Amino acid sequence: MKARLLRLSNDLRESYWFVPTVMAMAALLLALAMVYIDSHAGSTWMDGLPWLYAARPDGARSLLSSIGGSMIGVAGTTFSVTIAAVVYASGQYGPRLLSNFMSDRGNQVTLGTFIATFVYSLIVLRTIRSAGESGAGTPAFVPQLALLVALILVLCSIAVLIFFIHHVPMRIHINNVIERIGDRLIEEIDLRFPVFVGVPLDEGTDGPRVPTAFRADVGRTEYERRAPVRAKHTGYIQLIDESTLLDAARDHDLILRLQYQSGDFAHKGSVLLEAWPAERCDEDTVKALRGAFAVGSRRTALQDLRFLIDELVEIAARALSPGVNDPFTANSCLDWLGAAMADLARRDLPSRLRADEDGVLRVIAHPMTFAGFIDRAFGALAQYASADMIAGKRFLNALGDVALSCDDPGRIATLARHAGDFRALADGSLDGACRDAVLSRADDLLRALAEPDYKRRVRDGNAWLGGTA
């Protein structure tokens, strides 16, 4: 249930209807409150303010009609401009970036402000009456305070319109798009590591802690003691509620092995996880474990770092395509990927073995490795960047920046492997001076990474002086 609520919260943040609806309802309540105050307090309070003049029924109707008509017109124009910007950005940068623009709070509040002002004007307009309109002797009624609030809302709407005109082009500027994705990637890395789903256990204790049923040499008898929890829906796993998994495993003394992670595609009937021993896993437990997985039609960044990395890779790959040929956009993506991987290189990645608060193994998750994230980021871009001198040199610069944050020899070996693979790709993709420039930069990096004082060599090497290519 918690996983579904979190997914619903994310869907509401990425919708264009929720915030405008809330603001329209707030405007409705505000209009009713202002009319109520006017009907009980009257307008005599305005007599002491010489710069305010009480409006008559005809003038009040004309004013509110103008406000309401103009606001709904501007709201329609705003919506059209927003959709046009979203379509442009989706086609230019990739369809997976659509949710980034849909979740933009500025666009949602702008649309909501105009609709709220329209609703407020409509409700207040309905309450105005002339003398004798409702019968002989009926006095005129003009909600003066409500009219004043309507004017304030108009001024707010004008300010929001000015903001919107500035906000839309800034929002679709490619550097700002990349910055928002990169910032969120770094923020998620900071939130996720080093702990995720329980307390990590030392990998060195893998043997005695992992049950025989989950080992590679498992026998048929032990294998049959694994209870599969199957998916009931088809789609992408958007969220895994780790607290539900740990609570269910602890309450029933189970050990769970996850078969999927956030961002993976699961179909109906596929095994989401396996629980051991099977005799302790009843129908209610299976239902609770299944409810820890939120499945949807698309990937999200709720728990999926790979999705954010893929967004940057997609923008860079499109920029390096022959039809676009924009290596400087690819350079921006490489800069943010390098910053994110450098931040990751300074952190300890959690073990795949996760324990409860008592130190008892409860969950066996997918292993998260530095090499896996580097493969996802730089490995996926190597084939595109190796065919362009500008992007190729920046690719190697980014690897060097990541190396400056690494202290583990295994991680340095991973970076050296990627630099070597990239050199081989560039050797076959480039010609002439472009080829020589990239290969020289790759050789400098490989020589530096092979030395014990690689940080000094990378930092002081001529290829890295002055920053970037």
TrEMBL record:
Residues making up the signal peptide according to the UniProt record: none
Q: Does the keyword Transmembrane apply?
A: yes
InterPro entries noted in UniProt:
DUF2254_membrane
**Transmembrane intervals:** 16-37, 67-88, 109-128, 140-165
Entry keywords, A to Z: Membrane, Transmembrane, Transmembrane helix
Q: Which Pfam families match?
A: DUF2254
What superkingdom heads the lineage? Bacteria
What is the protein's name according to its record? DUF2254 domain-containing protein
Taxonomically, what lineage is the organism? Bacteria, Pseudomonadati, Pseudomonadota, Alphaproteobacteria, Sphingomonadales
